[in-house]
Design goal:
Layout lengths: L1 E3 L5 E9 L2 E4 L11 H14 L4 E5 L22 H12 L12 E5 L4 H8 L13 H4 L4 H12 L13 E4 L5 E2 L1 H13 L15 H8 L3 E4 L25 H9 L3 H8 L2 H15 L11 H5 L1 H5 L2 E5 L18 E5 H13 L3
Antiparallel strand pairs: 1-2, 2-3, 3-5, 4-5, 6-7, 6-8, 9-10
Amino acid sequence: MFLMNDAGTLLNATIEVKAPGIVLHSRSGKSRNRDYRQALELIMTRLDTAGIGYNVYLDSARSQHIPLAQRLLEIDMKTSVARRFDLIVRAMNDGTPSHGAWKRLLIVTSETDQIRLAKIVDRKSATRTVSRLPSAEMRKVQQKHIHQAVEFLRSGGDAQNFAPSRDYDALTENGEAFAPKKVFGLALEYALGIEAYPANFSASWGQPCFELLEDAGLWIVPKRNAAAARPKAREMVDVDVSRFVPTEEETVWIEGNPRIVSHLIKERQPGLAHQKRKEFLSEHGRLFCEDCGFDPVSFYGGAAGAACIEVHHHRTHLAKMQPGHLSSTDDLKCLCANCHRVLHRKLAMGTT
């Protein structure tokens, strides 16, 4: 979420209200969380006004393995919030080569009710008018914003304004599932510098949300037992299928999601798959499934076992590759036939 100051201006600083308190994300570069100082001072001011006590802890990725008590940043609560900010920055950089980095913080408060705490910290939110954004505004979301949102959610972050998904999942090529609205809501915040809400957009077929998520490499699939499904023949597959003969099961997948045709064709190119297996053997000394760890050679022996390891394109979204794109072995992953088959079914049809 983004804070709004007392003048009604949204601050470019990402915070989360979750147990055990408030997380303020780090500042980096010229644009990421550039209002970090204003946000931290505003949080401290509003907590002071509400009479809520708090402690500030370093919460950077490198420090999270350290016990919380050892990450406490000592500050004088009797000083001004501006002075407290300077003390926090000095303490978070103590003993490091950096003297001015503004790192991720955890503010643990005496108020344990997260809903009440969120209202105190972001007290202007109740007065905001939320309406649907024009399509042109939604389309300002770029692939980099969507990838940033996925990484944020993957690392344990949350989009608290959005509920868990009910009908669809947005899957990565590795089968990781995220709520489409959470991903797109965060991407909107990154792209437009606003705080996004469910009323700002629709997550359904024919809408910019699903279109842009798929363009960025995610697969929109129905959740288990969900009534919603991808419309039949929603799009044409613009690939040469003259030499592509799908299996009976692959035909079902294609009916569920025609975009998987491009994926299957690319994976059947023998040269790159052979090179990937060769490099994998050189690095690890054996072939095994990178998902389940199964070593078919030790179980079946020789060439029969090696044939059980297949190559999956996981890094680059094949159905949306630009003309002339050349895959590399870094785009590939070694999977056993079972894991590969399950993953393809998920990408095409969801978890039903």
